[in-house]
Design a protein that fits this description.
It is a single chain. With 137 residues, the chain is an alpha+beta fold. Helix content is 18%, strand content 39%. The longest helix is centred in the N-terminal third of the chain and has 17 residues. The protein is globular, with a radius of gyration of 20 Å.
């Protein structure tokens, strides 16, 4: 390789290293939230996700349900947490409904608290919480 090739390769590498980890950050405060989501007092099974949707219309945060109904909210690929303030909490089936439909016993919950549901509870996000409880009735 000649000097120009090395210089070009060096410039390309420098640009790549400069962009690693430079994902945009939220222009507002986030707090880490994790906890348990349940339906009628029973922890949700895997296959669901909860979404904390700020009432001011800003970007929501979501958490994939793990065993025992546990979740941890993420805001972007590089940021954990939810926006400080009032959020509606919604629940969604996180699987492909054509190949793996939501269990029948959760259909009413999904219609009440999903995307079009009017009954989504509102919560106040104000501080880091590692034991947040969400119970859909």
């Amino acid at each position: 390789m000649n000097k120009i090739s090395f210089a070009f390769l060096g410039l390309v590498c420098a640009c790549l290293f400069a962009t690693i980890g430079c994902a945009p950050k939220a222009p507002y405060s986030l707090v880490e939230i994790s906890g348990v989501a349940s339906y009628q007092g029973t922890p949700l099974p895997e296959g669901f996700r909860v979404e904390f949707e700020p009432t001011d219309g800003s970007r929501p945060s979501f958490g994939i349900i793990q065993p025992g109904g546990k979740f941890e909210l993420v805001h972007t690929a590089s940021q954990k947490g939810a926006k400080v303030g009032t959020c509606k909490v919604r629940v969604y089936w996180n699987e492909n409904p054509q190949t793996n439909p939501a269990p029948e016993e959760y259909q009413e919950m999904l219609s009440k608290y999903g995307m079009t549901g009017e009954d989504a509870p509102e919560v106040e996000v104000s501080k880091k919480d590692k034991d947040f409880k969400v119970n859909f009735e």
